[in-house]
Every structure is written in structure tokens, then in C-alpha cells.
Write a structure and sequence with these properties.
55% helix; Rossmann fold; 297 residues; Four Helix Bundle (Hemerythrin (Met), subunit A); two-stranded parallel ribbon; 2 domains; alpha/beta; single chain; elongated; 5-stranded parallel beta sheet
Length: 297
């Protein structure tokens, strides 16, 4: 993975590309103007009109990307006029005059436009951070709880133990963990643990992945646990290795892979812009200027 560029580094690269666009902008407009002059002369062809339309269309996107809003607006007006002309195929004096005026306006705004800072995506820090490993363990068997805490902490989890459901509820209201290990039977009832999780889901509209543990292994209790939103159910005695692996899979503590993007455009400058911005945001990007090369990637 390419490391995200610093804020200053990205700004400098974008400013350099914007300055290069400013430098080449007059030449782009001049090519449109010269092509139009050929179109309205006796040497004009339908293919020239299509090329002129395509050049105006391309300039819309490029100018907008580099912050030249006035150039984008002028290019879009010209593009629409050329599009209408291509449909009717009639080079009337009115149409010739309109397009000529629009090109002169484009030339004017292109000459007066000055670059300004380009906003861009900030680095997606959450893409490379590890998820929280905070686990709430609700278990009234103190000996079993002490053993589980020790074993889970050795596996790299941060475990907070609750011997009663009232303390668990109070702490949950302050901080929601990444996962819950919940016994089912408490002094409040034979399925008090299940009822507690069910209540939390209704109150908060969301609840972390929950693993129920119990000496009970009947189908009615398992069904009640599933209905309450439990993702897993372990019968005692517990297999700590399987419990640890289940927690790992439920909260996914591994580093998240960066977004991988394929960008296809026939404008090399735009491809460089996309690459700079997206790499700066911590993504991986492959750029292609020929669409036919996509199948090879």
C-alpha cells in the first residue's frame, strides 16, 4: 500500500497541476477556435464539428476539476450549442454568430481566470486503524469470570467484567463495547441475560455482537437467544480457543484493506489529479488512459 501523502505534499502537487492547467488553457481554447474557423469555411467537415464538440465537452470536466468554474460554465454553453448544431446540421448565419460569440466568451474567461486552492479528500484514517477490542463480560460466576478475563486478555482483548446486570447496564449507557459475552442465568431470572440484550436493542436500536454462554443447552433457550439478537451461543464448559476465534471474527481486529480504485480517462492531467487526491486519502489507484486496456488489469 502506498502511504498517504501529507497535507502539505498533496496541496503542493495539486497547486502544481493547477498551474500547469492554467498555462495550457489558452492553447486548448485556441484549438477550439481554429477548428471552428475551419468548420465555418468551405473546408469544414462533419468530423470537425464532432471534434470541436468533444474538445468543449472535455474542457468542462477538466476545468471543473481544477477549480475553474467560470471556464466550465462557458465551455458548457459552447458544448450545448455545438450539440444542437450537430443534430440539426444547419450552419445558418444565426448559429455561426452564436457559436463564435460563445468561443470569444470562453477565450475571455479563460484568460482572466486565476487559480485558487482546490479542496480535496482528507486522509481516511479509519481505513488503517484497528478497531476497538473492548469486551464486556457479564458473568455471575466469579471464578469462571476471572479465568475468562485472564485468557481473553492474553489474546489481546480489553475485558471489563460485570457480576451483575445493573452494573452492566449502567456501564453500557456510558460506553458501548465492541462485543458482549453474556451469561443467560442471573438472580433476576433464568433468561435475564437474554432479556437484557433484547432490552438494549430496543432502547439503543443497535447492539454490539453478542455471544451468549450458559449451562443451558435446550432448543427453547437457544431460540430465545437468537431472537434477542445473539450472534453465537456457547454451552459451558467453554472452549476458550473457539471463543477467542469467534470474537476475532465478530469484531474484525485486523487492519482494514484500503480502497482499490481503477480510474479510466483519456485526459492524462485528470488521471494525475485523481491519483494525487486518492493516494493522499490513503487509497490505492490504478490509472488507464485507454479503455481497451481495462481487461488486462
Amino acid at each position: 500500500m502506498v502511504p498517504p501523502s501529507s497535507h502539505t505534499d498533496v496541496e503542493q502537487k495539486l497547486a502544481a497541476m493547477q498551474a500547469e492547467f492554467k498555462r495550457t488553457l489558452p492553447d486548448k481554447v485556441e484549438k477550439i477556435e481554429l477548428l471552428w474557423k475551419s468548420i465555418i469555411s468551405d473546408d469544414g467537415t462533419d468530423s470537425m464539428l464532432i471534434d470541436c464538440y468533444r474538445m468543449a465537452h472535455t474542457l468542462i470536466g477538466t476545468a471543473g476539476t481544477f477549480g475553474a468554474v467560470v471556464v466550465t460554465t462557458a465551455s458548457r454553453e459552447l458544448e450545448q450549442a455545438l450539440k444542437s448544431l450537430a443534430k440539426i446540421g444547419d450552419l445558418s448565419p444565426e448559429i455561426k454568430s452564436l457559436v463564435t460569440v460563445l468561443i470569444l466568451n470562453l477565450k475571455k474567461v479563460a484568460g482572466s481566470w486565476e487559480p485558487s486552492p482546490i479542496p480535496y479528500l482528507p486522509p481516511l484514517d479509519h481505513q488503517v486503524e484497528r478497531k476497538s477490542n473492548l469486551i464486556y463480560l457479564a458473568e455471575d460466576d466469579e471464578l469462571l469470570a476471572a479465568k475468562l478475563v485472564t485468557q481473553l486478555e492474553q489474546a489481546g482483548f480489553n475485558v471489563v467484567h460485570f457480576s451483575g446486570l445493573s452494573d452492566f447496564r449502567e456501564k453500557f449507557s456510558e460506553q458501548i463495547p465492541s462485543a458482549i459475552i453474556m451469561d443467560i442465568m442471573f438472580s433476576e431470572g433464568k433468561i435475564a441475560g437474554i432479556d437484557t440484550i433484547s432490552d438494549l436493542r430496543k432502547e439503543y436500536n443497535v447492539c454490539p455482537p453478542t455471544i451468549f454462554i450458559s449451562v443451558r443447552d435446550d432448543i427453547e433457550t437457544r431460540l430465545a437467544a437468537a431472537r434477542a439478537g445473539g450472534q453465537r451461543y456457547f454451552s459451558k464448559p467453554l472452549d476458550i480457543n473457539k471463543l477467542t476465534q469467534t470474537l476475532e471474527s465478530l469484531i474484525d481486529r485486523s487492519i482494514t484493506s484500503p480502497y482499490r480504485i481503477l480510474s479510466v480517462d483519456d485526459d492524462i492531467n485528470l488521471l494525475k489529479y485523481y491519483e494525487t487526491v486518492l493516494v493522499g486519502a490513503g487509497m490505492e489507484i490504478k490509472t488507464i488512459s485507454n479503455p481497451l486496456d481495462c481487461l488486462r488489469e
